[in-house]
Amino acid sequence: MKCHNQAYRIWVIDAHPLAGSFGSALATSYAAGASEAGHDVRLVALRDLAFAPNAPHDALEPDLILAQADLKWCQHLAVIYPNWWGTYPALFKAFIDRILTQGFAFQTEGKSWKGLLAGRSAQVVTTMDTPFWIYRWILGAPGVRAVAWATFGFCAIKPTFVKLLGPIHSSTLAQREAWLDEVFRMGRSVDGLLRTSPAARFKAWLTVARLQFYPFPILVLATGALAASDSLNHPIQAVPLLLAAACGFLLEFSTVLTNELEDLETDRQNRNAGRFTGGSRVLVEGWLSENQVKMGRRAAGVLLIILGVALVCTANSNPLLLSILILIGWLLGHQYSAGPLRLSYRTLGEVDVAFTHSILVAGLGWASQGASWHAGFPWGSTSAIFTSVLPSIILAGVPDQEADRLSGKVTTVVRWGVRTATRLAIVATGVSLFLKFLTTSHGPFSIAINIMATLHGLALVIALMRAGRRTEHGKIDGPLILALTFMVWFALEPFLALWAGMPH
Fold first, then answer.
1. Which of 141, 246, 271, 409 is the most buried if burial means most Cβ atoms within 10 Å?
2. Mean pLDDT, to the nearest integer, of 395-424?
């Protein structure tokens, strides 16, 4: 009887070297549970395979060729092995050494590596006699770390769930039967484990939120609040600032979820997705459903309205100005990828991101402190921030260009090509530095920041020039990190200068 919503292709590996072992019984029990749940299951015992442990990687025996095909076929991998001398048996080590070859399980990308087996999860079941607390906290769980992190994780098989069973030697028949039943239920509930476990759900939401993009706009928002406090000559109003920061967070969160939904087609076709490009992959790999993401976006919208009303009521400011800023932030975030405007599909997404991450969030922080536009809003410093954001958002389109073109998303890179786009990013880098020199003070602190920003900008220009000359464009995390950290100088300098000038 099928008792789960989704059937998986599951490959179960019995990695115990001895036939008739308890580990082999566990592997059989896991496979039986998965089969009963309606999953498509293949079970292999490594001791039955004919292969040489030390043969060349390019001379795979027929059994290993079939094993590679099974690994490619599966969506979930279950490995059951005994813990021997703190790790796994030599048979399993020889097996993974032979089948996880370069070009099949991983490949080199310049000086970095890329796993090629993404889209698969794993379950490791280990039997042992060592007490768990010694294995985990004294020995450091070497076998589990080697399999889950150094092997599966390196090849992009994620997540890996781990179950330790033991002590085996002193266990009773009743205890072993209980373990067999537990592993049977693990196989039967693969879908529930992968999709509904609290840990998996929490990790999925953390991944889809893409928290790496939030610190910068919050820093810019705080800078706007400090500028207003300095202009009005009164202390920071903490509660309105926290409410404004929460609204800024929710605006970013709602935008990210909208992008996940609207860019699903291009994300599916993207072969170069990374930490900063190609979406979170949560929808592509099925860790959350579209309905769940839509519900999350609705919840973020409701909470934004509640906190926005609280901000308007708490801040000693023009309520209309705050309301307009929040509304504009939501509209630009939503229309970045959603209809009818779909700005990122019309080569306007880069300007949208630069504006919302500079002038708009700085304005939200500014207005939260009771300042109005004519009270001396720091247009100069926010203009420098605006242009400093452009290189990173332009560069982010380089690894995505093929998938974007196929899905009709016309970014700057798609419209004008990589060479012209990187030249525009170089110009934006230079303009942002020029504006920074014009708008910052000439004290020792600001001069030091400007020198570091200039050196950083020169490194970014070199990286952009190299990216423009490349004929193949895969992941470019190195230049992207340079671009993303470059723009921090433009918010950090005014923030620290204003903070230092405040009475404490």
1. 409
2. 91
